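# nightly structure sweep
# worker-07 picked up a monomer target from the shared queue
# config: single-sequence mode, recycle default, output format = structure tokens
# input follows
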Amino acid sequence: MKLSFLGAAGTVTGSKTLIEHQGKRLLIDCGLFQGFKNLRLMNWEGWPFDPRTLDAVVLTHAHLDHSGALPLLIRNGFKGPIYATAATTELCGLLLPDSGHLQEDDANFANRHKSSRHTPALPLYTEEDARHALKFFRPVEPGQVVKVGPINIRLRPSGHILGACSAELRTARGSLLFSGDVGRPDDLVMQPPEPIEHADYLVVESTYGDRLHESYDGGAELAEVITRTAARGGIVLVPSFAVGRAQNLLYEIFLLKRAGRIPDLPVFLDSPMAIDSMHIYQRHRREHRLSVDDCKGMSHIAKICRTVQESRELDQQRYPAIIISASGMATGGRVLHHLRALGPDHRNSIVFAGYQAGGTRGARLVAGERSVRIFGEDVRINAEVISLAGMSAHADAAQLIDWMKTAPKAPRHVFINHGEANAAEALRIRIGRELRWDASVPLLGQRVEITGL
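# output follows
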């Protein structure tokens, strides 16, 4: 069996791993590169394989760094099935068309304002491309076996977000397990990741491979930020992923309000996709910890902003409030308009909840930069910038080690991906020291052959 690491190697984005075995070709995830410009430019490059020769795609979860390149793959000739859980399939039904729509909007904006070096500026793909891609999804239940030639594929819940799974590939001779993104055992909303059953070889993520999560005291830090911002008459702006992070934030704010730990400020959810995601959470209640009443509470805690006009009006407010708006790393979406309008005011706060990939506006602001470029303009950020890393949906280094310890035996080798270079290398060292397992960090584009499968 041969593995080619075509994304998420040396970075946390662009997840793609090609599997070749006995004449069959599988792609595990098909994500967009995000963050640094040199990574984003890779989305425009040709495929290192012929998509027409691919037999299937196995999708671990819906986030765009794992699913966002699927419309490109299909536009370039892929015609096989995309296997994913039902929840992932439904979430992709929101995320992918929205991604295409935003790219069309960005291209139109660049053409109107002549802010691109390309004439005309073009979208990476369109909303129509994305909707066409949805026709190739084939939902499977966790634990259900799907066969692609001699390979048996099984998805196993991994926490992280709704529908997220690890992907177990088994042949007559052994098994290969892709962790996908591993959730936290103590996540406020999601169930913990299932233990490992089979893994002769393991490909594991390393987003937080070099750090531990700060202790998270029931939203205490979030409560402090909201309270002091309200005291100075400011607005709390929370860039948030529409799937996963927005739901956690709404539930956290619901709990804080119910306990009287924050002022009773108006909350605005300015992300139509996050709104629609709530219904998917309600339909898949067995996959998370929330009760029916919890789902209702978090759904009703915020005023919904569906139209562009409603979104614009948020920036004209003259009273304290909380605005949750996509995207989570401030790479696009409605939050950019809020950031441009609210960032210069020192009374406001910008709260980043979760991981910020290198090269994104979120990462630059968290690192201390006080000027970001938005829609071709340099915007001065005088607002307080807070990072709530404790709200991440990814397992930290110790939690990844604990999850790997559930394996019934030591894998023959561990490949570490989906992490910045320092994080991946730190996890490699820790795996060797604590587990005594053989591990390596593949390079982008590296092709390896594994024996015994």
